[in-house]
Amino acid sequence: MSSLQHNPKASSPVYKQIPTSRYLADLPKGAYYQGDYKLGLNFYSFSHNLNSWINGTTDGAPPIDTMQVIRFAKEAGFDAVDVTAYYIPGYDNSTMPTRPDEEIFGYAAQIKLLCAELGIAISGTGVKNDFADPNEERRLLDIQRTKYWIDVAAEMGAPVMRVFNGAVPKDIHQFGWEAIARERIVPALKECAEYGAGKGVVVGMQNHGDMVCTADQVIRILQWADHPNLGLINDTGFFRSFMQPTGLNYDWYDDIEAVLPYTVNFQVKRKPAGSNTDPFIDLEELFRRIRRSNYRGYIPIETLWVNGDENHPQQLPEPPYEQVKQFLAQLREASEKTKSYS
Asked: Per residue in 55-66, pLDDT tens?
């Protein structure tokens, strides 16, 4: 049973944000980094096409399999791939794996072998989970599932396991953000981080416009958890005010910068306010902020489409190779242009 206690004041407000400016004021000031970054491809960039393959249906999007995406990434000039676990046959979002262990771990070994043969790194992997769910059984199952895929990550050679914090639960107004974060999310993250430490896999929680939308929420949760094997997947497309549908009129770049000391990996999106909004990310501004930090890890991209987008994968005769390569070229150009401080 949950130990959460009803807070009669929690609904007004459910969460009071500490301004990002307070965190920025405490950021360590280091030398401006002028070197190269390793750029990666998150598999979700081909989600429509990979889903066609994994589900055995075209559904309007030409199928592509995991090994083909790895080969494409190498040919396109990516330094690394983030092999989302969704695209390992046997993965399921709500149950333990649906295929035998030997088949799943065998496939992970094949991924590792192919990447080694091609000379491309594996920057991470990830699962779908909900550590904020009011149902304790659901949370315990997601912890068990995460541990299983940490084992797979270790077999594959993925250094980081990406996890979510969870959707805003139906009882948020009853208990408030902090109580749910402290008593549901933090213990689950700590348990997974401790397990990952024994396997050599860092656990990275991702801000995803859910229970974690702001730099303040990121930092508070990570400080409450206080585990050396737990960090942040810095998702540039999901910083926004809590419980808001988009990040329009929000200062995404300050939040991105404020959490850089906690960042263990990235997901760079084309649209910082959300995939269903208009503004495009200023990649030079992004790299200038990263270069002022001590972050030296991978910087993977994740291209997303919503219905009505031009060149939506379901409207193309082949997977969106050119669109992904174009975003990579923009990222590389911005990285090069920002090497000299200005």
From this structure: 998 777 999 999
pLDDT-wise least confident of 90-99, 156-165, 189-198, 306-315: 306-315
pTM above threshold 0.90: yes
Place of tokens 């791939």: 81
Beta strand 121-126 pairing with 80-82? parallel
What is the per-residue pLDDT for 11? 42
Comparing C-alpha atoms, which of 278, 335, 250, 323 is closest to residue 37?
335
Rounded to 10 deg, the angle between the 321-337 and 283-291 helix axes is: 50
Average pLDDT, whole number, for the chain? 95
Q: Is the pLDDT of residue 10 over 70?
A: no
- Contact present, 82 and 73 (Cβ < 8 Å): no
Provide the residue type at 35 as one letter: G
Buried b (16+ CB within 10 A) or exposed e, 202-221: bbbbbbbbbbbbbbbbbbbb
The least confident of 8-12, 73-77, 278-282 is 8-12
**C-alpha to C-alpha distance for 300 and 46, rounded to whole angstroms:** 13
Q: Residue 55 burial (CB < 10 Å; 0-12/13-18/19+)?
A: exposed
User: Contact, 151 vs 197, CB < 8 A?
Assistant: no
Q: Are the C-beta atoms of 131 and 120 separated by less than 8 Å?
A: no
Look at residue 5 in the predicted model and tell me its pLDDT. Answer: 62
Please return the burial class of 309, using the count of CB atoms within 10 Å of its CB with bins 0-12, 13-18 and 19+: middle
d(CA 187, CA 49): 36
Q: Any idea which residue has 């991702």 for tokens?
A: 206
Q: Which residue shows structure tokens 């970054």? A: 37
Tokens in use for 240? Answer: 């926004």
